[in-house]
Every structure is written in structure tokens, then in C-alpha cells.
Amino acid sequence: MTKISFAAHPYLLGFEQLDRLVERSARNDGYPPYNIEQSGPNAYRITLAVAGFSESELTITVEENQLMIHGIQSDEADTRVFLHRGIAARQFKRSFVLADGVEVLGATMKNGLLHVDLDRVAPETVVQTIKISATKKRD
Questions:
Q1: How far apart are CA 67 and CA 63, in angstroms?
Q2: Is residue 47 a contact partner of residue 113, using CB atoms and an 8 Å limit?
Q3: CA 106 to chain centre
Q4: HSE toward the beta carbon, residue 12, CA cutoff 13 A
Q5: Are 5 and 19 in contact (CB under 8 A)?
Q6: Among the listed residues 98, 73, 88, the one whose alpha carbon sits nearest the alpha carbon of residue 29
Q7: Who contacts 77 (Cβ-Cβ below 8 Å, separation ≥6)?
Q8: Cα 102 to the center of its chain, rounded Å
């Protein structure tokens, strides 16, 4: 079966990168669970359930419009003996693709929830007039 991409449509020129971003975001697993909420007209909040992680075990980076949140817990398996281990203690990497103009304002952690606040700056509207020139003969 051939996979058809929405970016292959003839009216969507230059959207190949968007198609790759959609593919990449579809590969995220479900850990850790998260919410995305709109907290204002141009404000958003991403909340991740990171129970068991401390602030020093979490890393938040933004690179080329991609927000990445990494969690790596220190290994304390040598000192503790678990009779039952139902709380996940695995590392994770969760990524979110940010639209142009979306900036990360900051992050806070409370009650095992990591909150990342975002703000979208409205871009300036630019109207460009293209001058029509006489065609030149090509050699």
C-alpha cells in the first residue's frame, strides 16, 4: 500500500517540512501523560505528569521550533528492594513542535506536575506587491 502525504498536493508548495513534523510527532509514545490547554487568547500551557522526578532530573530545551523535555531519574536500585514496582521509573523524551512565533515563557513544577507556559506572538502582516516585467528572451 502506498502512503500518500498531504504535502504531495500540488497547491501545497514547500510544506514538506511540515509533513515530516507531523510524522515525527505521531511517533511519541504515551509516557509521560500530558495535557495541553489554552490559558489565554495567545497563551498555552503544557502539563506533564512527572511524579517521582525532581527538577534536577528534568531538562527542557528548545531547538528549531521544537520543545523537548527529557527526564532521567538517578538509579537507586542498589539501595532499595521493591516488593512491587508500579510507578514507572524510566527515562523519557517528549517533544512538541512549536509554530512560528510561539515562545516558551518558563516552567514550574508543583505536586508532581511540570507546567511549561507558552506564548504566541502575532506575526506582522506583510503584503508584497510583485512587479510584472516584460519577458526576456532566453538563450
A1: 7
A2: yes
A3: 14
A4: 10
A5: yes
A6: 88
A7: none
A8: 11
pLDDT digits (tens, 9 = 90+) for 108-123: 999 999 999 999 988 7
Identity of residue 82: F
Cβ proximity of 116 and 98 under 8 Å: no
pLDDT in tens, 32-51: 999 999 999 999 999 999 98
Q: What CATH topology corresponds to 29-120?
A: Immunoglobulin-like (2.60.40)
35 exposure class (CB count in 10 Å sphere: 0-12, 13-18, 19+)? exposed
Q: What is the CA radius of gyration of the chain?
A: 22
Here the cell at position 129 is: 506587491
- pTM (predicted TM-score): 0.70
Cell 528534568 found at: 58
Q: What single-letter amino acid sits at 119?
A: D
Concatenating the DSSP letter of every residue in 74-88 gives: ---TTT---S---S-
Q: Which helix (H) or strand (E) holds 26?
A: helix 16-26
Cell (9 digits) for 68: 523537548
Domain boundaries, the chain: 29-120
